[in-house]
Amino acid sequence: MGFEKKVILTNKTGLHARPASKFVEKASAFSSEISVVFEEKEINAKSIMGLLSLGISQGKEITIKTEGEDSKEALNDLVTFIEVELPKEDE
């Protein structure tokens, strides 16, 4: 069963360098297939190069899609990372 959710990046740097690396690390901890959709491009969320190639900046909306055994947990964890953990790093 698959899940997806749209989220807006509110942190100052968006998903660049360190935040992207942490996102990929979190995504890689799950067995589910996870992808990020941004401006009609869909990439594997476990690929740092793919994620960085999207150039997602502050205020942009992405869709996180998950498919597999732990897909609901993966989606919840990644959404929390973007909505809660990343903005804390700006403080």
Mean pLDDT: 96
Q: Provide a count of the helices.
A: 3
Our Rg estimate from Cα atoms comes to: 12 Å
Uncertain segments are none
Q: Give the full name of the CATH homologous superfamily.
A: HPr-like
The proportion of strand residues reads 25-35%
* Spatial strand order of the main sheet: 1-4-2-3
Estimate percent helicity: 40-55%
- What form results from the Cα inertia axes? globular
Number of β-strand runs: 4
Per CATH, what is the topology? Histidine-containing Protein, Chain: A
SSE sequence, one letter per element: EHEEHEH
Q: Which CATH top level class fits? A: Alpha Beta
Distance between the termini: 37 Å
Largest sheet: 4 strands, antiparallel
Second rung of CATH, namely the architecture: 2-Layer Sandwich
Structural class: alpha+beta
The number of distinct structural domains comes to: 1
Describe the protein:
One of its GO terms (biological process) is phosphoenolpyruvate-dependent sugar phosphotransferase system. This is Phosphocarrier protein HPr. The protein is of the alpha+beta class and 91 residues long. The chain has one domain: 2-Layer Sandwich (Histidine-containing Protein, Chain: A), CATH 3.30.1340.10. It is 42% helix and 26% strand. It has three helices and four strands, in the order E-H-E-E-H-E-H. It has helices spanning 17-28, 48-54, 71-89; strands spanning 2-8, 33-38, 41-44, 61-67. The protein has a four-stranded antiparallel beta sheet, with helices on one face. Helix 1 runs antiparallel to helix 3 (71-89). It is globular. The N and C termini lie far apart (37 Å). The model has no long low-confidence stretch (mean pLDDT 96).
